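Dock 3-phosphoglyceric acid; give full complex structure.
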Amino acid sequence: MTAAFPDAGGMLDALRDAPVVAVVVIDDAGDAVPLANALAAGGLRAIEVTLRTPAAWDAIERIVGSVEGMTVAAGTVTRPEDVARVSKLGVDFAVSPGCTPKLVTAAAQAELPLLPGVATPSETMLGREHGARTFKFFPAAQMGGVKMLGALGELFPDARFCPSGGIDADNAAGYLELRNVSAVGGSWLAPRELIENKAWREIERRAAAAVHLTEA
Ligand code: 3PG
């Protein structure tokens, strides 16, 4: 029997008061916990550590369970064979820029909530055929931004999205106002250079500003 698809929607819904996911690239695993602590100090409750550097695996392992109240996701999960390994790290969910039958099947088998990435109606339909209802809309700005999410909303009224890609402090609120947006993600909170420079105060400031943005 095929396992039910583990939708990541519940993870995003739990961020209700601060529906912003910090998408990060970590080069030195030693920066992982101070970074997550800085985001938490600013009031953010979700971090997506992308598997774009060799240090990402160690970084995720260090953050999981060490920062109270922080939801930890592994991002840029593109290979079905990485799903089981990611699941063993104890992450809350996985995020992918894309949506393939093999990837969603691997997530179902590992019982790991997955936020599959889509940018078009066909990709959204593929995810829905596998039981997904919550998607990363990526890359959001490049693929039509708020207007495209409106169009997807007309086609798939029960689908929810977490847009990322080109989102920043200036345009995030416009996305969060949409009925079908559960949360937004982006690297503007903790860009790679700020992490490299251990600019924890600035990262905390950006996190706090992002929380403020959703309080209006
Ligand atoms: C992601 O994986 O969500 C993106 O790399 C974030 O995009 P951004 O750097 O444009 O915020």
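Observed: The pocket of 3-phosphoglyceric acid is lined by residues 23, 50, 75, 138, 164-167, 185-188 (CB under 6 Å).
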